[in-house]
Each structure stands twice: as C-alpha cells, then as structure tokens.
Specification:
By secondary structure, the chain is an alpha+beta fold. It has 14 helices and 15 strands. Strands 1-3-2-5-6-4 form a six-stranded antiparallel beta sheet. It has a five-stranded mixed beta sheet with strand order 9-12-13-14-15. A two-stranded antiparallel sheet has the order 7-8. It is globular, with a radius of gyration of 22 Å.
C-alpha cells in the first residue's frame, strides 16, 4: 500500500541492516537458544536440520545439542503454524501462535472439503485427538484409522483435516540432530501437559513480528503469518509505532526504539539453511534478495541453502556429502573480491567445526570468478 504521508524513506540497505540486526545476523548473539527461538517467533522446520543451521548462524557458541536438548525436554517442539508450514516453536508459542493462525488452517481445510463427503469435522477432531493422545501415532497409522471410520473419504483429505483441526506436534526423537526417526504425532496440549491458550489478540504478535522482522508493511506481516485482514490491527497500534516508507512509497511500521543501524554497517557472511524465515517473511524480499537474483534460491517448491555476502543473497551452498573429508561447496552467483572470499571461507570453516566437528574437508568454490 503506497503511503500518502511524508514519512522518512528507508532505502534497501537501511532495511537490510535493520532486518539483519533483528534477525541476530549482524553479529552473533549470546542469548540462550530457547530465547532466540522465542525472539524469532519460531524457526522454519520443513526439514529436520534447518533449525540447527539457523541458530548456528545467529548464536555465539551454539552447538547442535543446545537445540536437541530443548526438543528432548519438550521446551520446544515442531508443528504446523505460519504459512501452513512446520516450525520449531517454544512450548508457549506452540500453545498460542497456533490458535492465532487457525483461520489460515480453516482456509486450507476448505481446499480439501470435497474429499470429505459425509465427514462430521467435530467428530473427526474428537476421534483424532483421542487416537493420538492415547499414544503418539505415525502419520500412516492415523490415516488408516481415520479411513476405517470414513471409508468413502479421500485419505489425504482426512489427514489434512486432522492437522488443520488440531495442533499436532511431531514428537521426539523426530527433530533431534543426530537421530533419524519417522514422524509421530500427538496434540500440543498432551505433549506439554497443559491446555492451549485462547487465541491471543493479534496486537502482541504484530509487535513481536516487528521486533524480529521490521520495519515492515502490513502485507509483509500477512505474508509471514499466512493471514489476511491485519490492516485494522496496525491502525489500532499506529499511535504506538513509528512509520516510514520504502523507496516505492510503501508504508512501513516499526517499534519506536527498535535498532535501525547505519546502512554502511558491515554485515559478515552468513550460511543459511533452506527455508530460513529471513527470506520468507516479507512480501517484498528486495531487502535481502537483489532483483538480479530473484528466483535463484528456489526451484519449484524446493528451497536452496543460501549464502549472504554483505547482507544480501550472493550464492547457494551444499553441506559435506560422502563422509569425512568431503567439502562444503559454495556456488557464487557472481565474483567477489579476495577479502570477501576470505571472510566467506572463514565463516564456512566455522560452520563445519560447529556442525560437523571439523571432520569435513574445508570449503570448495564451485564457480569462483573473483580476483
């Protein structure tokens, strides 16, 4: 939405540095992993490993056990929240953010309603809850149990309905760093041993979103949450917020005291996993993705692991494959200078030490063309 005010303009680099600061990517933060998960409003977790790499890029002294221990102790868990995707959240956010985005789950369920002829959704929710609370159940087992109750329904629609109607968490050992396990499900209330909270007013979540992703437009937050009709919430909060505009005249909101570093602030290289929320949580991604590289971090529904240089998308990377001695491979989209290449190499070697104990074979450039 174009601004009709004369609010100060924030250029792309100003937005970049502000967002990196909120995302703990201008310098590694010393807060505990659980506090970082809460500050970031969860970690995108379509796959098991990305949350670990997200924290490794952001926290000083992080090791994978820091997050694994939180998952094993049920301080954090994996469930579907924003944008119908799996996130790793703190226990508190599992029980509050999920109710907040329930309207989006209801819309998703509507897409599968034709596959549910004669299915009473209240009965399906009650049956599914009792089934997965008796003991955590694999997805296949849940699907088969539902199909016995409603044999004329589409099997996929039945499991989607259970996921949309209930806050189903993926129980451990799924999600642990060094363990491979199938997905098993139970309800968040059962897993954490306490009831879900009523859906909170969106006001508090808007403020938390701006603290982690701002400055941002209404459309930006709607993109992050997968929700619509948030304009009224921002208008209600307007007296408590500062307003800016981007170079296209789009109105941006922010917390008055939030950090907005000088656009010239150095930004170190960072290796981010696939589906990092930094690249997914704004309608306009130009604050991180240069126009020339739009679409380079995706192919179809597959997200690539991304490399930031000077705060912006500059390449993709692959972790070591093939056992000890395999390198971390970097593919740059364009040449970079010797000093930047040295910083990328140093960051890559730090990643290898943190995540693999230094057993991998260093950093390899697949197409380096810099000086």
């Amino acid at each position: 939405m174009a601004s009709k005010t004369t609010a100060p303009v924030l250029g792309v680099r100003a937005l970049n540095r502000a967002t990196l600061e909120r995302q703990l990517l201008l310098r590694r933060d010393t807060r505990p992993a659980e506090d970082a998960v809460a500050h970031l409003l969860g970690l995108q977790a379509q796959n098991v490993k990305p949350p670990y790499f997200q924290l490794a890029a952001r926290l000083a002294g992080f090791v994978p056990e820091d997050l694994s221990s939180l998952m094993a102790s049920r301080a954090v868990a994996r469930l579907v929240t924003m944008r119908s995707t799996i996130h790793t959240h703190t226990a508190d956010d599992c029980l509050t953010l999920r109710p907040l985005v329930q309207a989006a789950r209801d819309r998703e369920l509507g897409l599968f309603r034709k596959g549910l002829p004669g299915v009473d959704l209240d009965r399906l929710a009650a049956y599914s809850r009792a089934f997965v609370e008796e003991q955590p159940r694999p997805v296949k087992e849940l699907r088969e149990a539902l199909l016995k109750q409603w044999p004329d329904a589409d099997p996929q629609a039945l499991t989607v309905a259970a996921r949309c109607l209930l806050p189903l968490v993926q129980t451990t050992p799924r999600g642990l760093w060094d363990t491979s396990a199938q997905v098993t499900l139970t309800t968040a209330e059962h897993w954490f041993g306490r009831p879900a909270e009523p859906a909170p007013a969106a006001d508090g979540t808007v403020l938390r979103y701006l603290a982690a992703f701002g400055p941002a437009s209404v459309k930006d937050m709607q993109t992050w949450a997968g929700l619509t009709r948030l304009r009224a919430v921002f208008e209600r909060l307007r007296p408590r917020l500062r307003t800016f505009q981007d170079e296209n005249g789009v109105e941006l909101f922010d917390l008055p005291e939030a950090p907005r570093p000088d656009p010239a602030t150095p930004a170190p290289p960072r290796f981010l996993p696939e589906f990092d929320n930094l690249l997914l949580s704004h309608a306009d991604r130009s604050r991180i993705v240069p126009p020339a590289y739009r679409g380079r971090s995706w192919r179809g529904n597959t997200g690539y692991r991304t490399l930031l240089v000077d705060g912006f998308l500059a390449g993709v990377w692959q972790p070591p494959e093939g056992g000890d001695g395999a390198p971390l491979t970097v593919e740059l989209f364009a040449g970079i200078g010797r000093e930047q290449r040295g910083a990328v190499t140093e960051e890559g070697e730090r990643l290898l030490t943190t995540m693999y104990g230094g057993a991998a074979g260093g950093v390899r450039y697949a197409n380096f063309t810099g000086s």
